[in-house]
Amino acid sequence: MLSYTEENYLKTLLKISLDKEKEEVGTNELASLLSVKPATANEMLKKLKKKKLVDYEKYGKITLTKTGKKNAIDIVRKHRLWEAFLYEKLEFSWDEVHEVAEQLEHIQSEKLIDKLDKFLGHPKFDPHGDPIPNKKGEIKIQHKKTLAEVSVGKSCKMIAVKDNSRSFLQYVVKVGLGINNEIKVLSIQDYDSMMVIEVNGQRSSVSQKFAENIFVAIK
Amino acid sequence: MLSYTEENYLKTLLKISLDKEKEEVGTNELASLLSVKPATANEMLKKLKKKKLVDYEKYGKITLTKTGKKNAIDIVRKHRLWEAFLYEKLEFSWDEVHEVAEQLEHIQSEKLIDKLDKFLGHPKFDPHGDPIPNKKGEIKIQHKKTLAEVSVGKSCKMIAVKDNSRSFLQYVVKVGLGINNEIKVLSIQDYDSMMVIEVNGQRSSVSQKFAENIFVAIK
DNA sequence: TATTAAAGTTAGATTAACCTAACAAATAAA
DNA sequence: TTTATTTGTTAGGTTAATCTAACTTTAATA
């Protein structure tokens, strides 16, 4: 049985390795994502190594073992199923679900998750458009493009967000964006790559940083 | 903000004071209900006193303060709402809901509970027949009789159970009993108060201890 | 390549929640 | 009312997860 804390370390390690193809998981980055000091993360890594959940040598690379990864994926599955529940059944807004799911993902009951999955009709994506792993731990990987890669004059459909932070999501809402919305790229500024986009008739100017955090399907 | 552990102490203190009218909450009993040693409970009591959640003097009585009680009731509210959810929406059986709700009751999100309450249609009772406190912390107290108080030849309706342990609940199910079932008391043994009861045509012999843990409404 | 900067590690301390063992107070029994 | 038993408390120790400060290794840069 894993502690709440151990689960969070595994989850974060998985997130780093998925988010960035570069695969370079470092103690400092891990620590900063978990809001702890590097020394703390280092200690936990030793503990997780002893438990055979990560492969790790002093000053070396950090990778999840097969077991570690399965555990991490299970947590992600729980997180996303809860998000779907909050959004679809309890009328939570898009940018509110993450925080509560951070707590719910640690509830220990296989039966609960199976039943929840069934209750929701076996959803494939969470409210942010991220795929929900199945019980076996398989994830449908969709190699997604970001809004930043769309060229002037083209249209696309928003399918997910990269950043799940509340501040970002609220910004997204403010621009009038949501999952499945059509986005038209009206212009791109050469100098700083600012984009003017149109969503449901609403025009907005967005930064490159913003555009890089919106996943889209190009028509 | 209360820790998981502190919440459990408050909840248990409330349970003791409600279950038994005698009101004698002792360190040992508290400790045993929480599966910790008396020394541990004692330490926590000092901590809760400092936080003004319990009133307590050395060797004296333990009582919840107003704040402590409100906190405890909020946890009970969450617990029972989650039980109702598990039972009604996720098809958990009657005897399975308690354990999972023990975890879910600690999720911190007022909005979540409000939404859940609404989603369930503001239920007044949990699957065991226990009243769900409202948001203000008010509980509909139903001074309930137990099956042990029913006399021979009389009929009654089961409305709740006193003991929420899995073993007891499974026994209840085995006897063919459930909330709202009609029970007829066919005979009571003078010597040891064993009862023969009939439920949906099924006759069973039950001990006094069993009968004392079934709450009923007498017709 | 030698030096500096960044990243990672170790040592020693702290806090919450728990323990055992010894002691003190209150209550019940003789 | 004195003694024995139960109940409650204190002291000192453990573990998980955190910290700061000092140190070491690796990587970057001059």
Plain-language structure description:
2 copies of one chain form a homodimer. By secondary structure, chain A is of the alpha+beta class. In chain A, about 40% of the residues lie in helices and about 15% in strands. The first copy, chain A, has 8 helices and 8 strands, in the order αααββαααββαβββαβ. In chain A, the strands form 2 sheets. Chain A has a 6-stranded antiparallel β-sheet with strand order 3-8-4-5-6-7. In chain A, strands 1-2 form a two-stranded antiparallel ribbon. Chain A is globular, with a radius of gyration of 19 Å. The mean pLDDT of chain A is about 95. Chains A and B meet through helix 5 and helix 6 of A and helix 5 and helix 6 of B. The structure holds a DNA duplex (30 and 30 nucleotides).
% residues in beta strands of chain A: 15-25%
Radius of gyration computed on alpha carbons of chain A: 19 Å
| Oligomer class | homodimer
Number of strands of chain A: 8
Task: Describe what is shown at a glance.
With 219 residues, chain A is an alpha+beta fold. The first copy, chain A, has 8 helices and 8 strands, in the order H-H-H-E-E-H-H-H-E-E-H-E-E-E-H-E.
How would the blueprint of this fold be written?
The structure is a homodimer of 219-residue chains.
Chain A: H1 4-19, H2 27-33, H3 38-50, E1 54-56, E2 62-64, H4 66-88, H5 97-104, H6 110-119, E3 145-146, E4 155-161, H7 166-174, E5 182-188, E6 195-199, E7 202-206, H8 208-212, E8 214-218
Antiparallel strand pairs in A: 1-2, 3-8, 4-5, 4-8, 5-6, 6-7
Helix pairs in contact in A: 1-4, 2-3, 4-5
The first copy, chain A, binds a DNA duplex (30 and 30 nucleotides) through residues 3, 5, 26-28, 36-44, 47, 58-59.
